Amino acid sequence: MEPLNTWRDDTRLTHGGRDPASHGGTVNTPVYRSSTFIWPSAETLPRYLRQADDPHLREHIYGRNGNPTTAAFEDAVAALEGGFRSLVMPSGLAAIAGTLLALVRGGDHVLVTDNCYGHARQVFDRVMREMGVEVSYFPPLLGADIAALMRPNTRLVYAEAPGSNTFEVQDIPALARAAHAGGALLVMDNTWATPLFFKPFVHGVDVSIQAATKYLVGHSDAMLGVITTTEALYSQVRDRVRLLGYIASADDAYLGLRGLRTLGVRLRQHQRSALAVARWLARRPEVLKVLHPALPDCPGHALFERDFLGASGLFGVVLRPIPEVALHAFLDSLRLFAQGASWGGFESLIRIAHGQRAFPDGLPPGHLLRLHVGLEAVDDLLADLDQAFAQARARHPDTDTQP
C-alpha cells in the first residue's frame, strides 16, 4: 500500500489510523478499553519500558501511556498536520497546559498573542506566572516586529490564527523566523483552520495544538485535545504530559477517528455556509462589522489569502449598540442558532463574546457576537437570523438606525 504521507488529505482522512489486518479485518480501529497490557516475558520488559525514551517504539504497557485506539488517532492527526508525531490529550486546554509545562520553566519569558483563547490566557496569567515565568502579550498583527520584544530568556512565542473572538490573522512564518532567530520556539493553536486549511509545520511552527473537541470530532460528543510536534521536541513533550497523567480515553479517541473520516466534506460545507451567512450579515443595517478572515476587510486578510487553504465555520460580528433587552430578544428568539460555549460540531451556535482582552483598536463599539455556522440549510439559517432581528426591533425600534 502507498505510504500515508504521499496521499492527498482526503485520502489520509479516509485511511489514516486504520489497519484492518491488525484488528481482525475491522474497517474501524476498535475501542481498546484497557488499563493493563501483558508483556510476553521478563526478557521483553526492558524493551517495553524503553518506549518512554525511544519515540520510534510503540509498545503498550499501561493505559495511561496510550493504547492502540489512541495511537491510531495520533498517527492520523500527525500525518495531516505534517509533524513528527501527535499526543492525544483529554481536552484542548489540557493540550495547551501540557505543552507549556513541557517547554517552559521558571525564569523563562514567553510572548503571547493578545487575541488568544480566554482560558489559555488564564493558564499564562495564573499557572505560568505562579511558576515564575515572565509573560508579555503582543498585538496579533505585529508580525516580524515581534523581534523587538524578544529577550535573552524568551523561550516561547504563542500564536493563534485567527485569534479568538476578533479573528485577526497572524503572520505565522514571520513569527517563526523571529522566534527562531532569538532561540525561541513557536507554538500555535490550529483549532480554527484544522490541518486541512493550514499546514503549521510548513510555515515554521514547532508545536501545533488543537482542541480536537471541535472540528476533528465534529459531533459535539467528545472532549479531546491533540499536540503535534517536531521530532526534536517529541520526547520532551511526551515525557512531561504522560508524567502528569494526561491521556484521553479510548472511547473519545475512537470518536476522534470517526470524525476525521468526514472532516473534509464537513469543513467544506462549514466554509461555504459560513461565508454565505457572513456576507448576508455584512449587508444588514443592524451590523457594524463582520469579522471573517476570508472577507477583505478582516484584519490580516492578505495573510489569510497567502497562507491558508480555506476558512472554517466560526467568525465574529459586531452589532450596533442596542439596549440589553433588545440584544437578549435577538439571542433568545433564535431557533437554529443555539447559545452554547463550544463550536465545530454539526449544529449552529451563537454567543456573546466575552474575554479578558480589551475591545481592540479599530473595531467599532458594539455588541461582539461569535457565530458558528453548522450544517443546516443556509436559507433556514438566514431566515432564523432575520426573524431574530425583527424581535430585536420590536423591543427597540432604532435597532437598525443607530448612528
Automatic annotation (TrEMBL):
It holds the Pfam family Cys_Met_Meta_PP. It catalyses: an S-substituted L-cysteine + H2O = a thiol + pyruvate + NH4(+); L,L-cystathionine + H2O = L-homocysteine + pyruvate + NH4(+). The modification N6-(pyridoxal phosphate)lysine is found at K214. The keyword Lyase applies. GO terms for molecular function: cysteine-S-conjugate beta-lyase activity; pyridoxal phosphate binding. Belongs to the trans-sulfuration enzymes family. This is Cystathionine beta-lyase. It comes from Pseudomonas japonica.
